[in-house]
Amino acid sequence: MFSPNDNLADLAAEISSNTAIITSYLEKNKLPQPTFAVNSPRSLPEAPEVQAARMALIEAATKIHHLAVGADEYIWSQALTLKHDQSVIDTLNQYNVWDAVPLEGTTTYAAISAKTGLAEHALIRIMRHAMTTGIFTEAAPGSGQIMHTAASSMPARFAIQKAWIGHNLEEVAAGAIYQSKALRMYANSQEPGEVAMALALKDGWAADKTFFEWAGESEREGEAKGWRVRRFGQAMESAANLGATKIEHIHAGFNWDSLGEATVVDIGGSVGHASIELAKKHPHLRFIVQDFAELEPQHNALVPSTVRSRISFQPHSFFTPQPVANADVYFLKHILHDWSDKYALKILRNIIPALKPGARVIVMDGVLPPPGTAPLNVERLLTSVDLQMMLGFNSKERMAGDWIKLFKEADPRFEVKGIVQPPGSAAALIEVVWKRDT
Ligand SMILES: C[S@@+](CC[C@H](N)C(=O)[O-])C[C@H]1O[C@@H](n2cnc3c(N)ncnc32)[C@H](O)[C@@H]1O
Protein backbone atom coordinates (compact mmCIF):
# COMPACT_ATOMS: atom_id res chain seq x y z
CA MET A 1 0.00 0.00 0.00
CA PHE A 2 1.20 3.55 -0.64
CA SER A 3 2.32 5.15 2.61
CA PRO A 4 3.04 8.79 3.51
CA ASN A 5 6.43 7.53 4.71
CA ASP A 6 7.53 6.11 1.34
CA ASN A 7 10.41 8.15 -0.10
CA LEU A 8 12.79 8.11 -3.08
CA ALA A 9 15.89 6.97 -1.18
CA ASP A 10 14.24 4.06 0.65
CA LEU A 11 12.45 2.90 -2.48
CA ALA A 12 15.69 3.05 -4.50
CA ALA A 13 17.40 0.90 -1.84
CA GLU A 14 14.50 -1.57 -1.96
CA ILE A 15 14.78 -1.76 -5.75
CA SER A 16 18.51 -2.32 -5.51
CA SER A 17 18.35 -5.08 -2.89
CA ASN A 18 15.53 -7.00 -4.58
CA THR A 19 17.16 -6.69 -8.01
CA ALA A 20 20.31 -8.18 -6.48
CA ILE A 21 18.34 -11.17 -5.11
CA ILE A 22 16.88 -11.91 -8.53
CA THR A 23 20.01 -11.38 -10.62
CA SER A 24 22.22 -13.41 -8.30
CA TYR A 25 19.69 -16.28 -8.29
CA LEU A 26 19.74 -16.26 -12.10
CA GLU A 27 23.54 -16.11 -12.20
CA LYS A 28 23.92 -18.90 -9.64
CA ASN A 29 21.54 -21.13 -11.57
CA LYS A 30 23.07 -20.17 -14.94
CA LEU A 31 19.75 -18.80 -16.16
CA PRO A 32 19.41 -15.90 -18.61
CA GLN A 33 18.59 -12.40 -17.30
CA PRO A 34 15.32 -10.87 -18.55
CA THR A 35 15.66 -8.20 -21.26
CA PHE A 36 13.38 -6.57 -23.83
CA ALA A 37 14.78 -8.82 -26.61
CA VAL A 38 12.50 -11.39 -28.25
CA ASN A 39 14.59 -14.25 -26.91
CA SER A 40 14.27 -13.05 -23.31
CA PRO A 41 12.83 -15.59 -20.84
CA ARG A 42 9.03 -15.23 -20.65
CA SER A 43 8.96 -14.91 -16.88
CA LEU A 44 11.15 -15.16 -13.80
CA PRO A 45 11.65 -18.54 -12.08
CA GLU A 46 8.96 -19.77 -9.68
CA ALA A 47 11.43 -20.14 -6.77
CA PRO A 48 9.71 -18.53 -3.76
CA GLU A 49 12.65 -16.22 -2.97
CA VAL A 50 12.67 -14.94 -6.57
CA GLN A 51 8.92 -14.39 -6.59
CA ALA A 52 8.99 -12.58 -3.22
CA ALA A 53 11.78 -10.30 -4.49
CA ARG A 54 9.89 -9.75 -7.74
CA MET A 55 6.72 -8.66 -5.87
CA ALA A 56 8.73 -6.24 -3.71
CA LEU A 57 10.57 -4.93 -6.78
CA ILE A 58 7.33 -4.27 -8.70
CA GLU A 59 5.85 -2.47 -5.69
CA ALA A 60 8.91 -0.28 -5.12
CA ALA A 61 9.30 0.46 -8.85
CA THR A 62 5.63 1.44 -9.12
CA LYS A 63 5.94 3.79 -6.17
CA ILE A 64 9.22 5.36 -7.30
CA HIS A 65 7.76 5.99 -10.75
CA HIS A 66 4.83 7.73 -9.07
CA LEU A 67 7.12 9.92 -6.93
CA ALA A 68 9.35 10.73 -9.89
CA VAL A 69 6.36 11.87 -11.98
CA GLY A 70 5.24 14.00 -9.06
CA ALA A 71 1.86 14.72 -7.50
CA ASP A 72 1.10 17.61 -9.82
CA GLU A 73 1.39 15.54 -12.99
CA TYR A 74 0.48 12.06 -11.83
CA ILE A 75 -3.30 11.90 -12.33
CA TRP A 76 -3.10 14.47 -15.12
CA SER A 77 -0.75 12.32 -17.18
CA GLN A 78 -2.62 9.10 -16.36
CA ALA A 79 -5.78 10.70 -17.76
CA LEU A 80 -3.89 11.64 -20.91
CA THR A 81 -1.98 8.44 -21.62
CA LEU A 82 -3.87 5.42 -20.21
CA LYS A 83 -6.72 5.39 -22.74
CA HIS A 84 -4.21 5.55 -25.60
CA ASP A 85 -2.08 2.80 -24.05
CA GLN A 86 -5.11 0.52 -24.28
CA SER A 87 -6.47 1.79 -27.58
CA VAL A 88 -3.18 1.13 -29.37
CA ILE A 89 -3.04 -2.43 -28.05
CA ASP A 90 -6.64 -2.88 -29.22
CA THR A 91 -5.83 -1.65 -32.75
CA LEU A 92 -2.62 -3.69 -32.96
CA ASN A 93 -4.74 -6.70 -32.01
CA GLN A 94 -7.72 -6.04 -34.28
CA TYR A 95 -5.37 -5.61 -37.27
CA ASN A 96 -3.16 -8.45 -36.06
CA VAL A 97 0.01 -6.39 -36.33
CA TRP A 98 1.59 -8.99 -34.02
CA ASP A 99 1.86 -11.47 -36.90
CA ALA A 100 2.88 -8.87 -39.49
CA VAL A 101 6.26 -8.35 -37.81
CA PRO A 102 8.77 -11.21 -38.07
CA LEU A 103 9.95 -12.81 -34.84
CA GLU A 104 13.50 -12.53 -36.14
CA GLY A 105 14.81 -9.53 -38.06
CA THR A 106 12.95 -6.36 -38.98
CA THR A 107 10.27 -5.03 -41.30
CA THR A 108 8.97 -1.62 -42.43
CA TYR A 109 5.80 0.35 -41.76
CA ALA A 110 4.88 0.03 -45.46
CA ALA A 111 5.16 -3.78 -45.31
CA ILE A 112 3.08 -3.99 -42.12
CA SER A 113 0.46 -1.69 -43.63
CA ALA A 114 0.26 -3.84 -46.77
CA LYS A 115 -0.13 -7.03 -44.70
CA THR A 116 -2.71 -5.71 -42.24
CA GLY A 117 -4.72 -3.17 -44.24
CA LEU A 118 -4.08 -0.54 -41.56
CA ALA A 119 -3.37 2.83 -43.22
CA GLU A 120 0.37 3.54 -43.02
CA HIS A 121 0.01 7.08 -41.60
CA ALA A 122 -2.13 5.78 -38.71
CA LEU A 123 0.04 2.69 -38.20
CA ILE A 124 3.17 4.84 -37.73
CA ARG A 125 1.49 6.97 -35.07
CA ILE A 126 -0.06 3.99 -33.28
CA MET A 127 3.21 2.08 -33.21
CA ARG A 128 5.16 5.14 -32.02
CA HIS A 129 2.90 5.31 -28.99
CA ALA A 130 3.04 1.55 -28.41
CA MET A 131 6.86 1.75 -28.51
CA THR A 132 6.82 4.21 -25.59
CA THR A 133 5.44 1.35 -23.49
CA GLY A 134 7.89 -1.32 -24.69
CA ILE A 135 5.56 -2.85 -27.27
CA PHE A 136 7.60 -3.16 -30.51
CA THR A 137 10.75 -1.11 -31.10
CA GLU A 138 12.93 0.19 -33.94
CA ALA A 139 16.27 -1.49 -34.65
CA ALA A 140 17.87 1.96 -34.34
CA PRO A 141 15.93 5.05 -33.30
CA GLY A 142 14.33 6.67 -36.36
CA SER A 143 15.43 3.86 -38.73
CA GLY A 144 11.86 2.80 -39.57
CA GLN A 145 13.07 -0.81 -39.17
CA ILE A 146 10.48 -2.36 -36.87
CA MET A 147 11.13 -5.32 -34.66
CA HIS A 148 9.37 -7.15 -31.85
CA THR A 149 10.20 -6.72 -28.19
CA ALA A 150 9.75 -9.65 -25.83
CA ALA A 151 6.29 -8.34 -24.84
CA SER A 152 5.00 -7.68 -28.37
CA SER A 153 6.16 -11.14 -29.45
CA MET A 154 3.83 -12.86 -26.94
CA PRO A 155 0.54 -12.58 -28.92
CA ALA A 156 2.50 -13.62 -32.04
CA ARG A 157 3.93 -16.68 -30.29
CA PHE A 158 0.91 -17.58 -28.17
CA ALA A 159 -2.16 -16.82 -30.27
CA ILE A 160 -4.67 -17.22 -27.41
CA GLN A 161 -3.34 -13.96 -25.95
CA LYS A 162 -5.15 -12.26 -28.84
CA ALA A 163 -8.46 -13.56 -27.44
CA TRP A 164 -7.62 -12.19 -23.98
CA ILE A 165 -6.79 -8.79 -25.49
CA GLY A 166 -9.95 -8.87 -27.66
CA HIS A 167 -12.28 -9.68 -24.76
CA ASN A 168 -10.66 -7.09 -22.47
CA LEU A 169 -10.21 -4.23 -24.90
CA GLU A 170 -13.19 -4.63 -27.24
CA GLU A 171 -15.75 -5.63 -24.59
CA VAL A 172 -14.64 -4.76 -21.04
CA ALA A 173 -12.83 -1.50 -21.90
CA ALA A 174 -15.86 -0.34 -23.88
CA GLY A 175 -17.92 -0.91 -20.73
CA ALA A 176 -15.41 0.90 -18.48
CA ILE A 177 -16.29 4.20 -20.17
CA TYR A 178 -19.93 3.70 -19.15
CA GLN A 179 -19.24 2.69 -15.56
CA SER A 180 -20.27 5.91 -13.85
CA LYS A 181 -23.41 6.15 -16.00
CA ALA A 182 -24.32 2.54 -15.11
CA LEU A 183 -23.82 3.27 -11.41
CA ARG A 184 -26.21 6.21 -11.67
CA MET A 185 -28.79 4.10 -13.53
CA TYR A 186 -28.54 0.80 -11.65
CA ALA A 187 -26.98 1.71 -8.27
CA ASN A 188 -27.82 -1.50 -6.33
CA SER A 189 -28.93 -3.88 -9.07
CA GLN A 190 -27.94 -7.57 -8.91
CA GLU A 191 -29.14 -8.21 -12.47
CA PRO A 192 -26.40 -9.38 -14.84
CA GLY A 193 -27.69 -7.27 -17.75
CA GLU A 194 -27.95 -3.98 -15.87
CA VAL A 195 -24.27 -3.23 -16.32
CA ALA A 196 -21.91 -0.79 -18.01
CA MET A 197 -20.81 -3.34 -20.62
CA ALA A 198 -24.40 -3.79 -21.79
CA LEU A 199 -24.82 0.00 -22.05
CA ALA A 200 -21.66 0.21 -24.13
CA LEU A 201 -22.12 -2.78 -26.41
CA LYS A 202 -25.93 -2.66 -26.85
CA ASP A 203 -26.13 -4.67 -30.06
CA GLY A 204 -28.92 -6.97 -28.89
CA TRP A 205 -27.86 -7.04 -25.23
CA ALA A 206 -31.14 -6.54 -23.37
CA ALA A 207 -31.15 -5.68 -19.66
CA ASP A 208 -32.41 -9.15 -18.72
CA LYS A 209 -29.59 -10.94 -20.57
CA THR A 210 -26.27 -12.03 -19.17
CA PHE A 211 -22.97 -11.42 -20.93
CA PHE A 212 -22.89 -15.13 -21.72
CA GLU A 213 -26.36 -15.17 -23.32
CA TRP A 214 -25.54 -12.06 -25.35
CA ALA A 215 -22.16 -13.52 -26.37
CA GLY A 216 -23.83 -16.81 -27.34
CA GLU A 217 -25.98 -15.01 -29.89
CA SER A 218 -23.12 -12.97 -31.33
CA GLU A 219 -22.70 -13.13 -35.08
CA ARG A 220 -19.83 -12.01 -37.29
CA GLU A 221 -19.21 -12.44 -40.97
CA GLY A 222 -17.34 -15.63 -41.74
CA GLU A 223 -17.83 -17.16 -38.27
CA ALA A 224 -20.39 -19.50 -36.75
CA LYS A 225 -22.83 -17.97 -34.26
CA GLY A 226 -21.45 -17.50 -30.75
CA TRP A 227 -17.94 -16.40 -31.74
CA ARG A 228 -17.68 -14.23 -28.61
CA VAL A 229 -18.26 -17.28 -26.37
CA ARG A 230 -15.51 -19.15 -28.16
CA ARG A 231 -13.19 -16.14 -27.87
CA PHE A 232 -14.03 -15.88 -24.16
CA GLY A 233 -13.10 -19.56 -23.79
CA GLN A 234 -9.70 -18.87 -25.36
CA ALA A 235 -9.26 -15.81 -23.15
CA MET A 236 -9.78 -18.00 -20.07
CA GLU A 237 -7.29 -20.51 -21.47
CA SER A 238 -4.76 -17.72 -21.88
CA ALA A 239 -5.22 -16.60 -18.24
CA ALA A 240 -4.61 -20.20 -17.22
CA ASN A 241 -1.11 -19.96 -18.76
CA LEU A 242 0.12 -16.90 -16.91
CA GLY A 243 1.67 -15.87 -13.56
CA ALA A 244 -0.77 -15.35 -10.71
CA THR A 245 -3.67 -16.84 -12.72
CA LYS A 246 -1.65 -19.84 -13.93
CA ILE A 247 -3.52 -23.13 -13.81
CA GLU A 248 -0.69 -24.94 -11.97
CA HIS A 249 -1.72 -23.19 -8.72
CA ILE A 250 -4.69 -25.57 -8.70
CA HIS A 251 -2.51 -28.36 -7.25
CA ALA A 252 -1.29 -26.47 -4.20
CA GLY A 253 -4.58 -25.32 -2.71
CA PHE A 254 -6.17 -28.74 -2.10
CA ASN A 255 -4.87 -32.26 -1.56
CA TRP A 256 -6.40 -33.84 -4.66
CA ASP A 257 -4.68 -37.16 -3.97
CA SER A 258 -6.64 -37.47 -0.72
CA LEU A 259 -9.77 -38.09 -2.82
CA GLY A 260 -8.59 -41.51 -4.05
CA GLU A 261 -10.66 -42.81 -6.99
CA ALA A 262 -13.10 -39.98 -7.51
CA THR A 263 -15.30 -38.12 -9.99
CA VAL A 264 -14.98 -34.36 -10.32
CA VAL A 265 -17.68 -32.32 -12.06
CA ASP A 266 -16.07 -29.16 -13.45
CA ILE A 267 -19.08 -26.83 -13.53
CA GLY A 268 -18.65 -24.00 -16.06
CA GLY A 269 -15.33 -25.60 -16.92
CA SER A 270 -15.04 -23.78 -20.26
CA VAL A 271 -12.85 -25.72 -22.69
CA GLY A 272 -11.63 -27.96 -19.85
CA HIS A 273 -8.14 -26.60 -19.13
CA ALA A 274 -8.48 -27.05 -15.33
CA SER A 275 -9.70 -30.65 -15.63
CA ILE A 276 -6.93 -31.45 -18.11
CA GLU A 277 -4.29 -30.05 -15.76
CA LEU A 278 -5.67 -32.05 -12.82
CA ALA A 279 -6.09 -35.21 -14.89
CA LYS A 280 -2.41 -35.10 -15.95
CA LYS A 281 -1.18 -35.12 -12.32
CA HIS A 282 -3.87 -37.25 -10.65
CA PRO A 283 -4.50 -40.48 -12.59
CA HIS A 284 -7.17 -41.70 -10.16
CA LEU A 285 -9.51 -38.78 -10.94
CA ARG A 286 -12.21 -38.67 -13.65
CA PHE A 287 -13.74 -35.43 -14.89
CA ILE A 288 -16.96 -34.21 -16.43
CA VAL A 289 -16.60 -30.72 -17.86
CA GLN A 290 -19.90 -28.86 -18.07
CA ASP A 291 -20.39 -25.68 -20.10
CA PHE A 292 -22.16 -24.34 -23.20
CA ALA A 293 -22.34 -26.72 -26.16
CA GLU A 294 -20.49 -24.12 -28.31
CA LEU A 295 -17.30 -24.96 -26.39
CA GLU A 296 -17.37 -28.71 -27.01
CA PRO A 297 -15.36 -28.64 -30.28
CA GLN A 298 -12.63 -26.51 -28.61
CA HIS A 299 -12.66 -28.91 -25.66
CA ASN A 300 -12.27 -31.94 -27.94
CA ALA A 301 -9.37 -30.29 -29.75
CA LEU A 302 -7.62 -29.46 -26.47
CA VAL A 303 -7.79 -32.74 -24.53
CA PRO A 304 -4.53 -34.68 -24.92
CA SER A 305 -4.89 -38.35 -25.83
CA THR A 306 -3.13 -39.34 -22.58
CA VAL A 307 -6.10 -38.22 -20.46
CA ARG A 308 -8.96 -38.43 -22.97
CA SER A 309 -10.46 -41.59 -21.45
CA ARG A 310 -10.93 -39.80 -18.11
CA ILE A 311 -12.46 -36.50 -19.29
CA SER A 312 -15.81 -35.98 -20.95
CA PHE A 313 -17.77 -32.88 -21.91
CA GLN A 314 -21.43 -32.38 -21.06
CA PRO A 315 -23.45 -29.37 -22.24
CA HIS A 316 -25.23 -28.07 -19.14
CA SER A 317 -26.49 -24.77 -17.75
CA PHE A 318 -25.77 -24.33 -14.05
CA PHE A 319 -29.12 -22.55 -13.74
CA THR A 320 -30.79 -25.95 -14.09
CA PRO A 321 -30.51 -28.85 -11.62
CA GLN A 322 -27.17 -30.67 -11.63
CA PRO A 323 -27.57 -33.84 -13.77
CA VAL A 324 -24.57 -35.73 -12.34
CA ALA A 325 -25.61 -37.17 -8.98
CA ASN A 326 -23.28 -38.53 -6.27
CA ALA A 327 -20.02 -37.19 -7.65
CA ASP A 328 -17.23 -36.71 -5.12
CA VAL A 329 -16.39 -33.13 -6.05
CA TYR A 330 -18.31 -30.32 -7.74
CA PHE A 331 -15.64 -27.87 -8.83
CA LEU A 332 -16.40 -24.22 -9.56
CA LYS A 333 -13.40 -22.32 -10.85
CA HIS A 334 -13.97 -18.64 -11.49
CA ILE A 335 -17.71 -19.17 -11.74
CA LEU A 336 -19.28 -17.65 -8.63
CA HIS A 337 -17.35 -14.37 -8.98
CA ASP A 338 -19.26 -13.81 -12.24
CA TRP A 339 -22.58 -13.69 -10.38
CA SER A 340 -24.20 -11.43 -7.80
CA ASP A 341 -25.26 -13.18 -4.59
CA LYS A 342 -28.82 -13.58 -5.93
CA TYR A 343 -27.58 -15.77 -8.82
CA ALA A 344 -24.61 -17.37 -7.02
CA LEU A 345 -27.16 -18.76 -4.53
CA LYS A 346 -29.20 -20.24 -7.40
CA ILE A 347 -26.07 -21.89 -8.84
CA LEU A 348 -25.17 -23.45 -5.48
CA ARG A 349 -28.74 -24.57 -4.72
CA ASN A 350 -28.94 -26.29 -8.13
CA ILE A 351 -26.11 -28.58 -7.03
CA ILE A 352 -27.75 -29.60 -3.74
CA PRO A 353 -30.08 -32.37 -5.04
CA ALA A 354 -27.04 -34.15 -6.53
CA LEU A 355 -24.97 -34.10 -3.33
CA LYS A 356 -24.22 -37.20 -1.30
CA PRO A 357 -23.15 -36.79 2.34
CA GLY A 358 -19.46 -35.86 2.49
CA ALA A 359 -19.41 -34.61 -1.12
CA ARG A 360 -17.27 -31.56 -1.65
CA VAL A 361 -17.87 -28.31 -3.46
CA ILE A 362 -14.45 -26.87 -4.24
CA VAL A 363 -14.35 -23.28 -5.37
CA MET A 364 -11.26 -21.77 -6.96
CA ASP A 365 -11.77 -18.05 -7.03
CA GLY A 366 -10.34 -14.76 -5.81
CA VAL A 367 -10.55 -14.11 -2.08
CA LEU A 368 -10.10 -10.38 -1.77
CA PRO A 369 -7.59 -9.66 1.02
CA PRO A 370 -8.03 -6.72 3.41
CA PRO A 371 -6.53 -3.61 1.74
CA GLY A 372 -2.73 -3.42 1.79
CA THR A 373 -2.15 -6.97 3.02
CA ALA A 374 -1.21 -8.58 -0.32
CA PRO A 375 1.65 -7.55 -2.65
CA LEU A 376 0.62 -4.48 -4.62
CA ASN A 377 0.44 -6.19 -8.02
CA VAL A 378 -1.62 -9.12 -6.65
CA GLU A 379 -4.00 -6.64 -5.03
CA ARG A 380 -4.22 -4.65 -8.30
CA LEU A 381 -4.98 -7.82 -10.21
CA LEU A 382 -7.78 -8.69 -7.77
CA THR A 383 -9.25 -5.18 -7.65
CA SER A 384 -9.14 -5.12 -11.47
CA VAL A 385 -11.04 -8.41 -11.66
CA ASP A 386 -13.46 -7.08 -9.04
CA LEU A 387 -14.20 -4.01 -11.18
CA GLN A 388 -14.40 -6.21 -14.28
CA MET A 389 -17.08 -8.23 -12.46
CA MET A 390 -18.96 -5.06 -11.55
CA LEU A 391 -19.10 -3.60 -15.03
CA GLY A 392 -19.69 -6.81 -16.95
CA PHE A 393 -21.76 -8.93 -14.58
CA ASN A 394 -22.98 -6.87 -11.58
CA SER A 395 -20.99 -9.34 -9.51
CA LYS A 396 -17.90 -9.09 -7.32
CA GLU A 397 -14.75 -10.56 -5.86
CA ARG A 398 -15.60 -11.73 -2.33
CA MET A 399 -13.64 -11.47 0.91
CA ALA A 400 -13.30 -14.61 3.10
CA GLY A 401 -16.29 -13.60 5.24
CA ASP A 402 -18.45 -13.04 2.13
CA TRP A 403 -17.71 -16.59 0.96
CA ILE A 404 -18.62 -18.14 4.30
CA LYS A 405 -21.85 -16.09 4.42
CA LEU A 406 -22.75 -17.07 0.85
CA PHE A 407 -22.50 -20.80 1.55
CA LYS A 408 -24.37 -20.52 4.85
CA GLU A 409 -27.16 -18.65 3.08
CA ALA A 410 -27.27 -21.20 0.23
CA ASP A 411 -27.83 -23.96 2.80
CA PRO A 412 -26.65 -24.39 6.40
CA ARG A 413 -25.54 -27.93 5.50
CA PHE A 414 -22.64 -26.47 3.50
CA GLU A 415 -19.60 -26.35 5.77
CA VAL A 416 -16.61 -24.26 4.70
CA LYS A 417 -13.66 -26.43 5.79
CA GLY A 418 -10.79 -24.30 4.60
CA ILE A 419 -9.60 -21.46 2.39
CA VAL A 420 -6.07 -21.95 1.05
CA GLN A 421 -4.23 -19.30 -0.94
CA PRO A 422 -1.37 -21.04 -2.83
CA PRO A 423 1.80 -18.88 -2.81
CA GLY A 424 1.92 -16.61 -5.88
CA SER A 425 -1.66 -17.39 -6.87
CA ALA A 426 -4.35 -14.74 -7.31
CA ALA A 427 -7.03 -17.34 -6.55
CA ALA A 428 -7.64 -19.40 -3.43
CA LEU A 429 -9.16 -22.86 -3.12
CA ILE A 430 -12.21 -23.01 -0.87
CA GLU A 431 -13.13 -26.46 0.36
CA VAL A 432 -16.77 -26.91 1.29
CA VAL A 433 -18.22 -30.18 2.56
CA TRP A 434 -21.87 -31.24 2.33
CA LYS A 435 -22.83 -32.37 5.81
CA ARG A 436 -25.10 -35.31 6.47
CA ASP A 437 -28.75 -34.31 6.99
CA THR A 438 -29.40 -33.85 10.69
C1 LIG B 1 -14.96 -16.95 -16.01
S1 LIG B 1 -15.29 -18.35 -16.97
C2 LIG B 1 -14.47 -19.59 -16.05
C3 LIG B 1 -14.16 -20.79 -16.87
C4 LIG B 1 -13.30 -21.84 -16.19
N1 LIG B 1 -13.97 -22.45 -15.07
C5 LIG B 1 -11.98 -21.23 -15.79
O1 LIG B 1 -11.75 -21.04 -14.60
O2 LIG B 1 -11.17 -20.93 -16.66
C6 LIG B 1 -17.00 -18.66 -16.71
C7 LIG B 1 -17.53 -19.86 -17.45
O3 LIG B 1 -18.92 -20.02 -17.14
C8 LIG B 1 -19.56 -20.50 -18.29
N2 LIG B 1 -20.99 -20.23 -18.14
C9 LIG B 1 -21.66 -19.07 -18.14
N3 LIG B 1 -22.97 -19.24 -17.95
C10 LIG B 1 -23.15 -20.57 -17.83
C11 LIG B 1 -24.29 -21.39 -17.58
N4 LIG B 1 -25.50 -20.85 -17.43
N5 LIG B 1 -24.10 -22.72 -17.48
C12 LIG B 1 -22.86 -23.27 -17.62
N6 LIG B 1 -21.74 -22.55 -17.86
C13 LIG B 1 -21.89 -21.22 -17.95
C14 LIG B 1 -18.90 -19.70 -19.40
O4 LIG B 1 -19.10 -20.26 -20.67
C15 LIG B 1 -17.46 -19.73 -18.96
O5 LIG B 1 -16.79 -20.85 -19.46
TrEMBL record:
Query: What domain of life does the native source organism fall in?
Result: Eukaryota
Query: What keywords is this UniProt entry annotated with?
Result: Methyltransferase, S-adenosyl-L-methionine, Transferase
Cite the O-methyltransferase C-terminal domain residue spans from the record.
261-410
Name a single GO biological process: methylation
Please give one Pfam family short name. Methyltransf_2
GO MF terms here are: O-methyltransferase activity
Q: Would I find Transferase among this entry's keywords? A: yes
Q: Which PROSITE patterns match?
A: SAM_OMT_II
Known PANTHER family for this protein?
A: O-METHYLTRANSFERASE ASQN-RELATED, PUTATIVE (AFU_ORTHOLOGUE AFUA_4G14580)-RELATED
Protein name in the entry: O-methyltransferase
From what organism does this protein derive?
A: Glonium stellatum
